[in-house]
Structure formats: C-alpha cells, structure tokens
C-alpha cells in the first residue's frame, strides 16, 4: 500500500496502531500463512484505534502526527485468541485496555467531526473471512499467542465505510504514517553525561 491522498469519495479514515518492524514481520508471517490456508485477504498487522469521517490528506496527517506525539512506544500483552462472525474480526488477538490506549482513542474521537461513534475494543485481527468450527480448532493449534507485541507507529488508512470482501481490503490506501514519540531521555548531569543506573 503506497501513501497517497484520499480521494473525495473515500468513506472514512481508519487510524491504526502498528507493531515495530521485527514484531510486524513475525505477525505478517502468521497473517499471510492463515490467509493462504483459508483463502483470505492479506493485510498489515494492526490495532484499529479509531475511525473518523474522511477529510483532506493534510488534516489527516496533522491529526496523525499530533496523536503520535502524545504517546511513547507501547508494549502490550495479548490475553487471548478469539473468534467472531464479523468479516474483519474472524480470528483476533484480544488485549486489555490501558491508559495509553484510552488516551489515543479519546484523542482521535475528540478530533473527529462529526464523531464516528466507533466503539474501541483493543484487538488485532489475524484473519478476515469465514471460519468453520473445525478451522477455528485448527487455528487454536497453529497460532501461538505472542507474549508481548511492541507498537511503534500510527498509520492512517483510507477505507470503505463497511469492509465485507477481500477486494475491499485490497482497495485500502495508506494516507500517512507517524512514529510514536521516543521515550524521554534522562537528563544529563553537570559533566554533560547521561547518568547511569548502578
């Protein structure tokens, strides 16, 4: 997906929390493997933080960078591997809410005009499509629950209002990316050196 401005007809913008590169690679292997096995679409591993009405690319990117500046990279622990009947939530990792996630979600919701009404539930989908009961049991055996996933970026994605097919997923476009702010650097001492722990 190349970065490009959203056309006027775009339905909405989805803001994603995206894992850092090494975690992303490992999760991408899982998503691609499952997609190949069960004829599903391929997509970048992500956690949807908010969905807002479409706006100009400049406004979307400004909102993205403002949000990224408020939170440092996150280390989150999945708590379960779950399933549902929803196309974009067929198989997913469930996370617990924490203060940083709530802060990010609230920021995007307060920035949206009008508010989208998106109900934030921290999860990361691993498969889009339909899974039989037998396939769900197979997924439980083949997918190991990661202990920790490190998130380091926010992405803005142009999506359709309702994603119900593989072609809908293929039509997604990246509007912008921003790195979460770096962790605060310890203040230097009088010699200009960063103090070290003992």
Describe this protein's structure:
- By secondary structure, the chain is of the alpha+beta class.
- It has one domain: Cyclic Phosphodiesterase, Chain: A.
- Helix content is 29%, strand content 25%.
- It has five helices and eight strands; from the N terminus they run E-H-E-H-E-E-E-H-E-H-E-H-E.
- The strands form two sheets. Strands 1, 2, 3, 7 and 8 form a five-stranded antiparallel β-sheet that branches.
- A hairpin with a 7-residue loop joins strand 4 and strand 5.
- The chain is globular.
- The chain starts with 11 loop residues before the first strand and ends in a 19-residue tail after the last strand.
- 30% of the residues are buried.
- Residues 2-10, 183-188 and 190-198 have low confidence and may be disordered.
List the helices and strands and how they pair.
Blueprint: E1 12-19, H1 21-38, E2 47-53, H2 57-68, E3 74-76, E4 80-83, E5 91-94, H3 99-111, E6 123-127, H4 133-142, E7 149-159, H5 166-170, E8 173-179
Antiparallel strand pairs: 1-2, 1-7, 3-7, 4-5, 5-6, 7-8
**Major sheet description:** 5 strands, antiparallel
CATH architecture: Alpha-Beta Complex
Mean pLDDT: 86
> What's the structural domain tally?
1
Detail the poorly predicted runs: 2-10, 183-188, 190-198
CATH secondary-structure class: Alpha Beta
Percent of residues in helices comes to 25-40%
Rough outline:
globular
* CATH superfamily caption: Cyclic phosphodiesterase
Tally the beta strands: 8
First-to-last CA distance = 46 Å
């Amino acid at each position: 997906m190349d970065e490009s401005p959203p056309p006027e007809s775009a339905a909405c913008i989805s803001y994603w929390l995206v894992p850092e590169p090494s975690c992303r690679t490992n999760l991408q292997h899982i998503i691609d493997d499952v997609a190949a096995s069960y004829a599903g679409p391929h997509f970048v591993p992500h956690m949807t933080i908010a969905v807002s009405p479409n706006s100009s690319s400049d406004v979307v990117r400004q909102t993205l960078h403002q949000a990224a500046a408020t939170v440092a990279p996150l280390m989150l622990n999945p708590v379960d591997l779950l399933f549902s009947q929803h196309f974009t939530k067929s198989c997913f990792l469930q996370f617990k809410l924490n203060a940083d996630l709530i802060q990010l979600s609230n920021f995007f919701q307060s920035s949206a005009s009008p508010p989208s009404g998106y109900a934030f539930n921290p999860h990361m989908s691993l498969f889009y499509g339909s899974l039989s009961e037998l396939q769900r049991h197979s997924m439980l055996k083949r997918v190991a629950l990661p202990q920790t996933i490190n998130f380091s970026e926010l992405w803005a994605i142009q999506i359709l209002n309702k994603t119900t097919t593989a072609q809908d997923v293929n039509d997604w476009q990246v509007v912008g990316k921003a790195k979460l702010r770096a962790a605060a650097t310890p203040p230097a001492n009088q010699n200009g050196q960063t103090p070290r722990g003992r």
